[in-house]
Structure formats: C-alpha cells, structure tokens
Design brief:
Layout lengths: L1 H58 L6 H10 L1 E13 L1 H6 L7 E14 H6 L21 E9 L2 E11 H4 L5 H8 L11 E5 L22
Length: about 220
C-alpha cells in the first residue's frame, strides 16, 4: 500500500507540475504563434490595400472582389505626369480696362509623359498579388473577406473598401480559452477586437487596426 500511495502521490505531483507548466508556458507559446501569424496576415492586408489604392487612383473606385482586383493589377497602368506653370494674357480683363496687356493668367498644367505598369510599380518581380486574398497560414484554407462601395459625406459620395479576417480563423488550432481572451483584448500594443481589418465600410479610412510594431514586414522579398 505504501508503494501504491507513493506512486499516486508522484502522479499527482507530476500532473500538478504539468498544469503549472502549461499555465505559464501556454500563454507564452500562444503569443509567439499569434504574433508570427498576425504579421503574415498583415503583410497580405498591406498588399490588398496597396492594390486597392492603385485601383482607386486609376478608376476612381475600389474593387469589390479579388478577381477584379487581380485583373486590374495584371493589366492597368499608372499615368506618369509632369506639372508645368504657364502664364498668358488675360484678354477679357485687359479688354475691359481698354489695354492690350497688363493683366495675366497663371495656370498649372499637368502633362502625361508616359505610363508605368501597376504590377511593376507595386510588386516588381513578385506575383504574390495573385495569392494575396488567401490567409497565409499553413493548414488554414480560407480567404479574406472584402467589400467596397460608396458612402455619403456631406454633399459628396466617397469610395470606401474593407478587407478583414477573424482571429478565430487565424488561430483555429490554438487553445480555445486563450483564443476567447484574445478576441476580447483591449490594448494599445495589440490588435483589439475579433478581426484584423484594413479599411472601413462606414468611414473614409484605409488604415489597418494593428499597432505600429506590426509594420515591419514578415515576408522576405
């Protein structure tokens, strides 16, 4: 009986030790996994934002879906422009004052001097824009949610877009209790809320909801 009791006690001690280790190391490991995955996801969201801003610059609106966005990057071109100032006689004003010259009009003209591929401008030799819609996490078969449209601001209608993914998708294989805490987090050094988001469908905003410590790219180009 003494040996049995000793074995039971050692088993209890081992179990308590494991639970203590897990309670300390579990959150540390969770945060390490979280930060690496978030950095990869944010890199893709930055690519989506860059492509969307180019789309808006060229077409005046944002793309509603990834097929249209990828096709745009593949085929569209930026206009290369040059500004120049010019001055000429204000004929009407001079005529009104009975003079031939004296009043002038100054004007800035913008000339198009060439074009440059959107793909080369944004992505150079990389074709990662073709997969930027995929969640870049091994074992996760999902895509970012994306939408675009117009909102009213005073007398104007302005284009907006939003791309996002739920933390539950990114961390689906992690501890559910720690994941639940992550979805409720409120901190200036973390990503608050249940989603990682760039842009907004309710206001003119193309920022992401991540803190500055995620602005260093995770990928190696």
């Amino acid at each position: 009986m003494k040996i049995v009791i000793q074995l039971v006690l050692w088993a209890i001690i081992g179990l308590l030790g494991y639970l203590l280790f897990k309670s300390i190391y579990g959150p540390i490991q969770f945060n390490q996994v979280k930060e690496k995955r978030y950095a990869k996801v944010i890199d893709n969201l930055k690519d989506i934002r860059s492509a969307q801003l180019a789309h808006q610059e060229v077409t005046g609106v944002f793309a509603k879906d990834f097929d249209a966005l990828v096709a745009f990057v593949d085929t569209a071109e930026f206009a290369i422009t040059q500004r120049r100032d010019t001055i000429y006689d204000d004929v009407e004003k001079n005529k009104a004052f009975g003079i031939t010259e004296g009043y002038f009009i100054e004007e800035t003209l913008i000339d198009t001097i060439g074009y440059k591929s959107v793909r080369d401008s944004l992505f150079k030799d990389s074709d990662r824009y073709k997969t930027m819609m995929n969640i870049p996490i091994t074992g996760v078969d999902a895509k970012f949610e994306m939408d675009a449209g117009m909102i009213e601001s005073g007398d104007f209608k302005l284009p907006v877009f939003e791309a996002k993914v739920a933390k539950n998708v990114i961390l689906s294989d992690q501890d559910p209790d720690l994941l639940a805490q992550e979805n409720q987090i409120v901190s200036v050094e973390d990503i608050n809320g249940s989603h990682i988001i760039v842009g907004s469908m309710t206001e003119v905003n193309t920022n992401g909801n991540w803190p500055k410590n995620y602005d260093t790219p995770a990928r190696k180009n």
